[in-house]
């Protein structure tokens, strides 16, 4: 079967049957073959299937209800408004809500979507409404021949793939912050505050959505389903620790962006204060001539020096003197602040 981008008639984007006893390892299957295999007896050894659905397809959820035998918690999670990352146990199934970046991720806070996962002894279901990067990378790895030995290992590989993708995002954001910092040191601010704001909102949203819920994860690791092997539990614990490391890196990067924003704000405030000081000085220097011009412009009798032959130059001298005194006072008050 050639996997379809938008899904087949049931909304299945891709499906694989993993059987360690088979020579081909992973075999691509369609929705009809998956339904027949799931309806078959359960004595298939350690074989299991992975089905990846497009929830934008109208038939996807109906097919899952009819054939997948997933618990109600999975379908409730699809309709739940909470999209925070979590892994919970529902009897013999694992229900995971994982947030991932779009396939065409452009470092925008809106380029994040949710992936819903249901894991059972014979079945792994992943469902999304928009193309996501990590699950597509996992599908590519399966095509290359990387075969997980169990459903939990497949879940663990997906989480590790997502962690690797987050590391790439952190590196990309770090590179952009480095560029902004270099431009800041070179006094080329332009629109760097807006760029930093976008990057910070992206990191905040990623951290809020991707941080696994500690309580649910602790309960799962302490009381896993009976069909989960101890090695699988340890690998799942290791993948969650990788998430914690990436989230700590994100927190540190947020603090760095915050410091840069504060430095840029301080620089902008300093420029504004300098401009305001220049405007104040100009206003002070123009004050004497404005006052004298107003006084001598009144149409009343008794204006001094009106008949004096050197009256104009006397007035100019008075204005220049008052202006010099005002300038001396203004710059004398500014001097201690600069020193």
Beta-strand residue percentage: 5-15%
**Biggest β-sheet strands, sense, barrel:** 7 strands, mixed
Helix content: 55-70%
Question: What's the total number of strands?
Answer: 7
Question: Which stretches are poorly predicted, pLDDT < 50 over at least 5 residues?
Answer: 1-5
Principal-axis shape equals rod-shaped
Query: For the terminal residues, how far apart are their CA atoms?
Result: 78 Å
Sketch the topology as an H/E string, one letter per element: EEHEHHEEEEHHHHHH
Spatial sequence of strands, sheet with the most strands: 2-1-3-7-6-5-4
Alpha carbon gyration radius: 35 Å
Q: SS-based structural class? A: alpha+beta
How many helices? The count is 9
Mean residue pLDDT: 77
Keywords: Cell inner membrane, Cell membrane, Coiled coil, Ion transport, Membrane, Transmembrane, Transmembrane helix, Transport, Zinc
Organism: Variovorax ginsengisoli
Main location: membrane
InterPro entries: CorA_cytoplasmic_dom, CorA_TM1_TM2, MgTranspt_CorA/ZnTranspt_ZntB
Please characterize this protein's 3D structure.
With 339 residues, this protein is α+β, with helices and mostly antiparallel strands. The protein has a domain at 272-296 and 306-338. It has helices at residues 31-39, 60-68, 72-79, 133-144, 151-185, 192-210, 214-222, 230-296, 311-338; strands at 12-18, 26-28, 48-54, 86-90, 93-101, 112-119, 123-128. The chain crosses the membrane at residues 276-298, 310-331. Pfam families: CorA (PF01544). Belongs to the CorA metal ion transporter (MIT) (TC 1.A.35) family. It comes from Variovorax ginsengisoli. This is Zinc transporter.
């Amino acid at each position: 079967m050639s996997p379809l981008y938008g899904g087949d008639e049931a909304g299945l984007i891709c499906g694989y049957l993993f059987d360690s006893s088979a020579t081909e390892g992973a075999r691509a299957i369609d929705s009809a073959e998956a339904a027949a295999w799931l309806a078959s007896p359960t004595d298939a050894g350690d074989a299991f299937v992975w089905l990846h659905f497009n929830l934008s397809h109208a038939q996807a959820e109906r097919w899952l209800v009819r054939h997948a035998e997933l618990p109600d918690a999975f379908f409730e999670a699809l309709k739940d408004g909470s999209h925070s990352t979590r892994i919970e146990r529902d009897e013999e199934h694992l229900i995971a809500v994982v947030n991932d970046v779009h396939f065409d991720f452009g470092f925008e806070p809106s380029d994040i979507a949710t992936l819903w996962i249901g894991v059972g002894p014979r079945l792994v279901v992943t469902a999304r409404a928009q193309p996501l990067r990590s699950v597509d990378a996992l599908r590519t790895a399966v095509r290359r021949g990387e075969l997980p030995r169990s459903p939990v290992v497949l879940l663990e590989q997906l989480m590790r793939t997502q962690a690797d993708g987050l590391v790439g995002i952190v590196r990309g954001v770090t590179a952009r912050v480095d560029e902004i910092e270099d431009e800041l040191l070179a006094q080329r601010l332009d629109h760097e505050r807006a760029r930093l704001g976008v990057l910070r909102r992206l990191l905040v949203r990623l951290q809020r959505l991707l941080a696994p819920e500690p309580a649910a994860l602790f309960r799962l690791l302490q009381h896993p389903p009976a069909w989960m092997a101890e090695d699988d539990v340890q690998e799942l614990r290791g993948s969650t620790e990788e998430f914690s490391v990436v989230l700590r890196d994100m927190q540190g990067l947020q603090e760095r962006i915050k410091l840069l924003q504060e430095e840029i704000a301080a620089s902008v405030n300093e420029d504004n204060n300098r401009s305001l000081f220049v405007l104040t000085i100009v206003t002070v220097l123009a004050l004497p001539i404005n006052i004298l011009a107003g006084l001598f412009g009144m149409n009343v009798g008794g204006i001094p020096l009106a008949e004096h032959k050197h009256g104009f130059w006397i007035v100019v001298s008075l204005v220049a003197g008052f202006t010099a005194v005002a300038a001396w006072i203004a710059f004398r008050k500014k001097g201690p602040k600069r020193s």
